[in-house]
Write a structure and sequence with these properties.
With 266 residues, the protein is α/β, with parallel strands linked by helices. The chain is 42% helix and 24% strand. It has one domain: Vaccinia Virus protein VP39 (Rossmann fold). S-adenosylmethionine binds next to helix 1 and helix 2.
């Protein structure tokens, strides 16, 4: 993977990401991650690669005014949206590879759908372990392997066929932490004890195939990497490959497999 595949967005795409991507996909995973990590009132929680902050918001709701929630991300646009929605949460700019926090600051460190974008994943997990207290939790969600994605597999084939190499590099990154065995190895290599590793079949829900494709393109860095013609071709071919997941009313329910890993800092 190249170090440039870090899912960086401009403000329009970050707003679109929050409006479309988050409710369609990421909102389903945040409560699962919070539950798996055992987040409870009074804790201090860090959300790494927080994006527009869906995990941090769920954590804050769970803490209900007790404890502390901090979200950290590399991207100014994502953080601007996060701040607009929840000004009461502490949003910080920072790199997962060098987290801007002292050692043992947090009871739990969470990372949703972001680990695959970090150029040094073991290094980032080591950083998460460093800022977790002894006996604290580090937990992550990542998408499963592309081979295990019945809807995204064919859709990615369509996108790969029409998009250029630059777009392809981004699309391949999404699925690059998908091997659950390798994922556990990354945690071990970072000095963490894996407590649980499970796979879950979620559902990406969109009003139409058009909405599915718009979300994937306009809520991601893909928007800057394809021509209008490539975009139109992807839209056209997506109708066919997503038909098995399209209802009579035109809405799409696309299965999306992901893995949830929880670990303890020794
Ligand atoms: C697909 S988004 C996921 C955001 C959020 N966790 C969610 O569930 O909606 C991936 C996020 O990782 C962030 N990111 C990528 N590389 C990073 C790094 N090295 N350090 C911190 N954040 C990073 C991106 O800016 C982006 O906000």
């Amino acid at each position: 993977m190249t170090a440039t595949e870090t899912f960086q967005l401009q403000i329009t795409a970050a707003e679109f990401y929050e409006q479309k991507f988050v409710p369609a996909i990421f909102a389903e995973w945040a409560p699962l991650l919070i539950q798996a990590a055992g987040i409870s009132p009074g804790q201090s929680v860090l959300d790494v690669g927080c994006g527009t902050g869906i995990v941090a918001r769920h954590a804050a709701n769970r803490l209900a005014g007790t404890g502390v929630v901090v979200g950290v991300d590399l991207n100014d646009a994502m953080l601007a949206v996060a701040r607009r929605i929840r000004p009461d949460i502490d949003w910080r700019k920072g790199d997962a590879g060098a987290l801007p926090f002292p050692a043992r600051e947090f009871d739990a460190v969470l990372c949703q759908m972001a680990l695959m974008f970090f150029p040094d994943r073991v290094g980032a997990l080591r950083e998460m372990a460093r800022v977790a207290r002894d006996g604290g939790t580090v937990a992550a969600v990542v998408p499963g392997r592309l081979a295990d994605q019945p809807a995204y597999g064919p859709f990615m084939d369509v996108a790969a066929r029409h998009a250029g190499d630059q777009a392809l590099a981004l699309l391949n990154t999404y699925w690059s932490c998908g091997d659950i065995g390798e994922l556990q190895w990354l945690f071990h290599a970072a000095g963490l004890d894996v407590v649980s590793a499970s796979s879950h079949m979620g559902t990406a829900r969109h009003a139409s195939v058009e909405a599915f494709v718009r979300t994937e393109v306009e809520g991601s860095p893909l928007i800057d990497r394809i021509t209008p013609r490539q975009y139109a071709s992807i839209r056209e071919d997506a109708e066919e490959v997503l038909r098995p997941f399209t209802s009579a009313d035109g809405s799409v329910a696309a299965p999306l497999q992901g893995h949830i890993i929880t670990a303890t800092k020794k």
